Amino acid sequence: MYKLPSPVQAPTNKKPNKRRFRYLIFQILGAILLLSWISYSFSSGVDRISLKIHPAVEGLISRPGPISPIRQKEKKKEAYVTFLSSITDPAYLLSTRLLIYQLLHDPLNLDSTRSRDIVVVLTPEISQDVEALLMREGATIERVELLDGLDLPEQVNDHWRDQYTKLNIFNLTSYERVLYLDNDVLLLKSLEDIWHSDGSDLPSGLGGVGENSKRLMRNTDLRIPPPEGLDVEEKDYLNAGFMLIRPDEGLFEELRGVRGYDTFYMEQALINHYFDWEGEHPWTALDYKFVSHFPRSSDIEEGYHSLHAKMWKDPVPQAVRQIWEQAVERMEEHWRWHEEE
Length: 341
Ligand SMILES: *[C@@H]1O[C@H](CO)[C@@H](O)[C@H](O)[C@H]1NC(C)=O
Fold this sequence. Notes:
The chain is of the alpha/beta class and 341 residues long. The protein is built from 10 helices and 9 strands.
């Protein structure tokens, strides 16, 4: 008898197609799993999981490229820099250590981003022991050679070569910008705002705070403060103890070739000659509240960030000296506590 095909067997085309579709999905998933296992094996080290692969196929499997040098060591953008050339007066070492402490560890003054190096530039005269001490306390060390070949003042003192050697900070090209501080700068508050402050883009490569008017400067071993009430706009004579710098090897070489200035103040005179406000590369004035070059007790209430003087021997007001003494005490306490740990 002729039997009609049951509806189940009828070639409806629907169910077998669904099945085929499922197989396809499983095949694709399987292929994906296999491929990802192969690529994982390669990226996680061919040595550990040894796979035999035909050389013709090997070329088709992409391997991770070499790690770029930028990822290995990121270029630091900014640093605080100071300079130590002699410790015949041990107060200079104390003062350098104090600056490192204030910038890195002192809760009242540190750079809270903790992203900037504290660099100490050392001349060959400074011993390995001192270098090791500064490194232990957190500094990054830059050794430089004494810088020769610049014009000397008539009465040369023992430290003329050191003074010019300070110019090496213009060659610290592993940083985009550096804030140079003489090692006798005492912080009253963090200096971290300076990196984003007005003028910090440094069109000529140098910014700072004027200490006096050029027309009033005299060659003298005594430090003469500017007349009371002299306007900031008139202070076109930069104090080289506090400078925001964009290091540049070309600029550094150019500075080494500068001649024809009154050499009495050596590197500071050279800098003021080259970066003259009337010349081609005027230095940029930063907010004068970043540093007081002739500290007065009123600076403390007026919100200055730092005071620049040899607190252990310059004739500074008692209130100022007291702040220095307290900072030294905090530092000693800090390191005592650290040694006991
Ligand atoms: C200045 O820096 C460059 C690059 O780091 C270096 O090759 C050169 O010797 C430096 N110049 C001096 C005089 O130290």
